[in-house]
Amino acid sequence: MIRFALGASAGLAAMTAPAIAAEIQIASAGPVIELTVSDTVNAKPDAAMVSAGVTTRAASANEAARLNAVRMDQIIAKLKQLGVPADDIQTSNFSLNAQYTYNNDGRQPTFVGYDVNNQVMVKLRDIRKIGPTLDALVAAGANNFNGPNFVLENDAAARSEARRNAFASAEARARELAGYAGFKSVKLLELSETYQTVSPVYARGEAIAVSAQAMDKTTPIQPGLVGTAAQLNVKYEMTK
């Protein structure tokens, strides 16, 4: 949270260190209005996160892991061949589980093998290449996907616009409320901004079966718009 406290005296104005300003208790002469206002600006995304991986099954855990490693090597090699930097490829999950078929007739579950799942989280910075990249990963052996989750990495302009809109809305609402109470204007006493970091949650994807005929067409991707939000907490004194 970034917090600014504004006072009427020159002494307070001279205190520029944020840590000092955050601790100042401002006494107001008139009634006070406190508001929390937010605004969201939509913009085209400039990157996307995709979870891609492989699930393999075999009679032994070692064999399931070996088969999985071979196919994951192919997927990672394909990503690098497509120009994805190594820093944009990160392992997000590795799991090994015994699988059983459960019967409804009271018999013991039947062991069917071991499943190994390995997933990597990939950041794709060229939106236009997401569809062809997914198709190339399927051809390389990937059978688990989740995403894409679109993001706006260069969000400074959008966040600044959202902040500006939120501040204008807060001031207009404060003046409106002050007018209802018989006051002529308002004076800003305190302003703070709250940042919220939202981390996407990627669930395990379902296995995908792709036929040769299906691969004749590029996977369609629609990026749409992503929102960038700013939230301001303001305190105004109502003045005559």
UniProtKB/TrEMBL annotation:
UniProt keyword NADP present: no
Coiled-coil residue spans: none
InterPro entries per UniProt: 26kDa_periplasmic_antigen (IPR052022), SIMPL/DUF541 (IPR007497)
GO biological process, one term: DNA damage response
Keyword terms, alphabetized: Signal
Top-rank taxon, per record: Bacteria
Signal sequence extent: 1-21
Family annotation (PANTHER family): PERIPLASMIC IMMUNOGENIC PROTEIN, SLR1258 PROTEIN
UniProt name for this protein: Secreted protein
Organism of origin: Novosphingobium kunmingense
Taxonomic lineage: Bacteria, Pseudomonadati, Pseudomonadota, Alphaproteobacteria, Sphingomonadales
